[in-house]
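Obj: model holo form, ligand = arginine.
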Amino acid sequence: MSTPETVTVPSPIPEPAEGRTAHHRRYLMCRPEHFTVSYKINPWMEPAKPTDTAKAVAQWQMLHDLYLELGHEVELIDPLEGFPDMVYTANGGFVIDGRAYVPKFRFVERAGEAPAFADWFRAGGFDTVEPEEVNEGEGDFLLVGDTILAGTGFRSTGDSHREVGEVFGREVVSLNLIDPRFYHLDTAISVLDPVEGAANGGPERANIAYLPGAFDDASRAILEERFPDAILVADADGAVFGLNSASDGYNVIISPRATGFEKQLRERGYNPITVDLSELLLGGGGIKCCTLELRAARDSEVDA
Ligand code: ARG
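Output (holo C-alpha cells):
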C-alpha cells in the first residue's frame, strides 16, 4: 500500500509571530521526469530497490506548488535523460549577488549535469564562473549572513572552499562531515534566517539548526561558538533528513517525519510546513536538495 501524499499547509498561512519575517525567494528546480536509482554514490541509494518516477514527480510537484503558494518564484531547468539525480538542483551551483559558481561533481555519474547548469546560468544572465576544484554547489555551501559555511569530507574538497571564497569575496568557514549518511552539508545544517537578518536591521543574527553528530569535534566547536542560539536537532530527526529543509525566515519546509524538529521550530516562532518527498529520499535527497536559491545582484533584491 502506498502512503498518501502529505502536504499540510495551514490555511490561511498564519501571520509571522513577532520577530519573524517571510522573505521572498527565487529558486531553481528540476522536475524529476527521469528520476530513478541506477547507481550508488551515497548510503541511501539502493539500485536494486524499485523506484516510482510518477510518485517522485507528484511529490516534487507538491513542493513546487507550495513555494508558489508562499509567494516565491520558481525557475525550472529541463531534466536530462540519463541524469536521474538532476532533480537535486542544490548541487547545480552556488549563487550569490547574481554570480553563479558552477559545480564540478565528485562522481562521474553526475558530471554531465554541470554543463547543463552552466548553460542555464549563462542564458539567465548570471555572471557564470567555471570551477577548478571539485564542489557540489549549495549541497556543501550555505550562506549564513555574510559568511559561507562550507562542508567537506565526502564531496566538495577543501580546495573548493578556498575557491568559493575567492569567487565571492566572502569569509568561508570549513566544516568536516564525518557520517556517510550526511555526506552534503545541507543534510546536516539548515539555514533558518534570511541573508543578513541582523545586518538588514532584522531582529537577530542569522541562525541555523544542525545535527551535532554529523561533524567532527573541531567543527562542532566552531558551530557552538558561532551559533550559540542554534537549534540542535536530535539524531532521530536528522536520520529522516529533517535538516534538509528550506526556510524563508518564517516558513520552514521540512519532512513530516522530523516531528521533534517541527516542535522546536514552532517554539522559536517559525512556521514549519511538512512536505513528504519519500520517493526522492531513495536517491538520498530531500527538500533542500531539490531547491537551489538564486540570489540576485544586491541592488535588485526585493523583499516580499
Ligand atoms: N543522489 C544524489 C547524490 O548522491 C543526491 C544529492 C542530494 N543533494 C543534496 N544537496 N544533498 O549526489
